[in-house]
Write a structure and sequence with these properties.
Helices cover about 85% and strands about 0% of the residues. By secondary structure, it is mostly helical. The mean pLDDT is about 80.
Amino acid sequence: AATDFAIALVQSLVAQELGVSASEFQSLLDALGK
């Protein structure tokens, strides 16, 4: 659970830095994961 929280936190910070929405960032992660 701690790892999941850390990942979510990093994702939110990165999304803010890049100025993209969470949905767009998630879509990018999905694309990279395939």
